[in-house]
Amino acid sequence: MIEQGYSCSEAGRSLGINGAMISRWKRELSEEADAAFRGNGKRNPEQQRIYELETENRRLRMERDILKKSHGLLCQGKSMRYRFIDTHKKAWPVRLMCGVLNVSASGYHDWAIRTPSQRDQVNGALNQRIEAFFAHHRQRYGAPRLADALRDEGYGCSDNRVAR
Predict the structure, then answer these.
(1) Which of 40, 60, 114, 147 is the most buried (most CB within 10 A)?
(2) How far is the C-alpha of 79 from the C-alpha of 98, rounded, in Å?
(3) pTM for the full model?
(4) What is the Cα–Cα distance from 35 to 37, expressed in whole angstroms?
(5) CB under 8 Å to 80, separation ≥6 — which residues?
């Protein structure tokens, strides 16, 4: 009757019951519904088990997706894994990715704030120079010719380093 727009006292009068009793039943019913469906800590054991399984299922799906996306990064060095984590940190939690990719979260955070080493800086400059030479010579120079041209400019590099 309440669903049809009657107040608790009107419904009680028509049924011959005290309106306060109907109010209490209504309140108890809504509290049970809250406990069962809103997850406020009052779950029965079966509901708790379902909740735990859904949580684990969600975590396992994320781990699967991380491994699918990483394309064999476990065979690469840590810096490649850290780069992957940095790229995808908005999609998945960092700690979860670190666990899946077998690196420590503290190692990732240390990598993220670390300045590039002197060798990395030299390699970056060398890469820019190699790309410029390669583009200037219409992408026809190979590693030996590029290495010779770079040595003429004063860069100390071997053919293999240029090829890498």
Answers:
(1) 147
(2) 12
(3) 0.52
(4) 6
(5) 73
